[in-house]
């Protein structure tokens, strides 16, 4: 730093501005001190190495395993044996429990083969493929029959073990697969013949209630209180009836018998509620309007709504969906006391929804309004309405009770559905629902 006046005293001080910068200050002895930054050192950025031209991101490689020396087969079989041994201990009336580690909570104690199958993962990739193969077999059996995943795994283990033996002896694998398929087709009729509940002289040989209780108790972890309750439920609703098991909120197991038809659909608006204490809609001698399409305007229902107002009967509208523009006039007239009405969405979706509406129409004696049948909502009168003895609608469920006058039509509908079930392919999904 240079100065023109020799009387000036140069004082050079460094004041730290930051960990990587400093400033030089100048002061005059004859005048008041002032500070002026003269230079600031900028922080040095770290030197980044120039990437090499030969750098390439590492790609995930596919592992290939060839079975020339049966090493891959042995690995697959080891995974199958391990999971079958683990799941097999839960099978039968003397089945034991399996403790599963839970990453986000305490360990789980289960005796259900399906649950155990979902939790098994092995470190060796080939052994884990064997686990996935038998898991797929168990899942398919469970989807088709609702149970039997453990039995499928045990049978698969035996088939694989015997198949490996004959393959090692030199048998052609294609011929082996064809032989297994041919044997399975021959065994299915024999299994049906020796089953307990079968047709004999046109009548079913019924299984005793205590036998049903035994089977249900084994499935419930040898809990005979649950088994006896399920046997009692089947006794009341019939062997072809519908039994649903749900988680309760009380400390005791309870059995509830529902007379009529119940499905999981609630009211579209709380303004329809007639019982504020239970937040439910309850109608007696109610009429049902069944529509297999979307209702967009209340003018489409003028004829039916006018009949309900004049004759003063409650009306329940069951449709694919109802737009707010069509729903608002119904709510407004209900609040004024001019109309007793409620609206719900039709249960299920797609083809299932159409079958559900047909079931409701059969039960109540009504007609489903569909455009493809040439019947429009504007032209429909009260003759298309179904009749019920009582209707109870809650936030997420609807119960329809009839007087039994349509029992003959219901029986024909049941026979029709049973015929469809018998002729259908068991490996395809059949969307036919009957909740009666």
TrEMBL record:
SUPFAM superfamilies: GroEL apical domain-like (SSF52029), GroEL equatorial domain-like (SSF48592)
Organism classification: Eukaryota, Viridiplantae, Streptophyta, Embryophyta, Tracheophyta
GO BP annotations listed: protein refolding
UniProt-listed Gene3D superfamilies: GroEL, GroEL-like equatorial domain
Pfam family name, one: Cpn60_TCP1
Organism listed in the record: Colocasia esculenta (Wild taro)
InterPro entries in the cross-refs: Cpn60/GroEL, Cpn60/GroEL/TCP-1, GroEL-like_apical_dom_sf, GROEL-like_equatorial_sf
One term of GO molecular function: ATP binding
Family to which this protein belongs: Belongs to the chaperonin (HSP60) family.
Domain of life assignment: Eukaryota
Record-given protein name: Uncharacterized protein
Keywords for this protein: Chaperone
């Amino acid at each position: 730093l240079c100065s023109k006046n020799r009387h000036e005293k140069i004082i050079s001080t460094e004041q730290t501005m930051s960990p990587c910068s400093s400033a030089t200050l100048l002061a005059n002895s004859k005048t008041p001190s002032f500070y002026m930054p003269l230079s600031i050192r900028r922080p040095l950025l770290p030197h980044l190495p120039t990437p090499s031209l030969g750098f390439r991101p590492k790609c995930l490689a596919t592992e290939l395993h060839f079975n020339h020396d049966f090493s891959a087969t042995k690995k697959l079989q080891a995974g199958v044996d391990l999971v079958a041994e683990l799941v097999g201990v839960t099978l039968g009336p003397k089945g034991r429990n399996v403790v599963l580690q839970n990453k986000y909570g305490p360990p789980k104690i289960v005796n259900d083969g399906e649950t155990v199958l979902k939790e098994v993962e092995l470190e060796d990739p080939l052994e884990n493929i064997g686990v996935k193969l038998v898991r797929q077999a168990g899942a398919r059996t469970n989807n088709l029959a609702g149970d039997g995943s453990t039995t499928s795994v045990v049978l698969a283990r035996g088939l694989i073990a015997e198949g490996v033996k004959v393959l090692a002896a030199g048998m052609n694998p294609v011929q082996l697969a064809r032989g297994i398929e041919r044997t399975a087709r021959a065994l299915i009729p024999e299994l049906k013949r020796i089953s307990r509940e079968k047709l004999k002289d046109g009548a079913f040989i019924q299984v005793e209630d205590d036998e049903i209780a035994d089977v249900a108790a084994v499935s419930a972890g040898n809990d005979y209180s649950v088994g006896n309750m399920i046997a009692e439920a089947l006794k009341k609703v019939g062997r072809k009836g519908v039994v649903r098991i749900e988680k309760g909120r009380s400390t005791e197991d309870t059995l509830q018998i529902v007379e009529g038809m119940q499905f999981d659909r609630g009211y579209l608006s709380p303004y329809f509620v007639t019982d504020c204490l239970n937040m439910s809609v309850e109608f007696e001698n109610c009429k049902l309007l069944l529509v297999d399409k979307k209702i967009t305007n209340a003018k489409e229902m003028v004829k039916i709504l006018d009949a309900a107002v004049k004759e003063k009967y409650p009306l329940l509208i069951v449709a694919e969906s109802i737009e707010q523009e069509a729903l608002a006039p119904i709510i407004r007239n209900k609040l004024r006391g001019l109309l007793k009405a409620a609206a719900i969405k039709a249960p299920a979706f797609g083809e299932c929804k159409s079958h559900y509406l047909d079931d409701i129409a059969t039960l109540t004696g009504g007609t489903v309004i569909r455009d493809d049948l040439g019947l429009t909502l504007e032209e429909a009168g009260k003759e298309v309405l179904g009749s019920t003895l009582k209707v109870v609608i809650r936030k997420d469920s609807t119960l329809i009770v009839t007087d039994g006058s349509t029992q003959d039509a219901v029986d024909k509908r049941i026979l029709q559905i049973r015929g469809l079930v018998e002729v259908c392919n068991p490996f395809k999904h059949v969307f036919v629902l009957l909740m009666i």
